[in-house]
Amino acid sequence: MQRNGHRSCVLWFTGLSGSGKSTIANLVDQLLFERGAHTYLLDGDNVRHGLCAGPNLLAPVYGSEFAERFGLGFGQQDREENIRRVGAVTELLANAGLICLTAFVSPYRKDRDLVRAWVERQNGPGTFLEVFVNTPLEVCMKRDPKGLYQQAIEGKIKNFTGISDPYEAPDSPELELRTAECSAEQCASQVLSYLTVQGILP
Amino acid sequence: MQRNGHRSCVLWFTGLSGSGKSTIANLVDQLLFERGAHTYLLDGDNVRHGLCAGPNLLAPVYGSEFAERFGLGFGQQDREENIRRVGAVTELLANAGLICLTAFVSPYRKDRDLVRAWVERQNGPGTFLEVFVNTPLEVCMKRDPKGLYQQAIEGKIKNFTGISDPYEAPDSPELELRTAECSAEQCASQVLSYLTVQGILP
Which of A137, A148, B55, B116 could be joined to B67 by an S-S link, Cβ 3.0–4.6 Å? Predict the structure, then answer.
């Protein structure tokens, strides 16, 4: 959609908890906004209570059988469906002409590749940009902004990516950001440069 | 979001199959586009293969257990979840600054009211506009553009709204369009006028 003065795409940030995905995605969103771009950022905050609500939020409204079936917890199937729903929405947002940013751990390669295939099938090649926020586990554990790694190590959180669950790094992401070596601002500006080089931004 | 030169909202078209929802929603979308508005239209065509895909589409990719759980068929629970997912996406699209149009039968008052509550909680009062496409059943059956009523009468389609399943008309829709008395163009222009009066369009 040329109306917006830029091409649309999906910027899919993936990386460990504490890697800096949300921080950088928010910075990129802000920089894009300042350049007059039309953007939307999807993260846990805006899907957890709606599109990907858990059983406990759905049960009071829709009943427990419905909530058990469609509500998303932390099992493998639930995580797959979480990424599938988010991916389907990114496809629609890109189709609406927006630059859509997402910030989810999205640990499984297969799930990310399925989103890529779906987005590109609907919006054309080069519209799905995988941004690997490559921060060493030790650095993420040291940052531990929400104290989640500590809880995972103590066994209080099961299936925690990086501790008790695998993180499958992208094979060939469009972008790789090394937050242990560069500031969040430097990483964000790397993303903007890439969008310009790719002709997504004018 | 004032960047777009208009306010954002959800225009939720509801009515029987064959009532003219899609025709009018597409016309409104076109008129809004011509006025420079940023819009997105959600209907069966763009959610059926992605966000609200059925079990048969999901099974080859995700396996049959996953497909049975999350794939949407035509049962009551499936229809509820279909409208819930679409509603959650309209909330995000309105939040992104767009005028979001939807064209789904959405026969149950409770489901529409839940979407209304959710959209207005996130985007503010007056952002959910229910457009009742009020076409008498006899007229819809006579039009029967896809031959669905005929199949429903012959019992080949179960749970068909208007024949074997109820349609619960809105109690107090923001707009009521009577397609038996007005042309689709007249109905569309009625919607545009309403958006202007409400200050959504400048």
Answer: B55
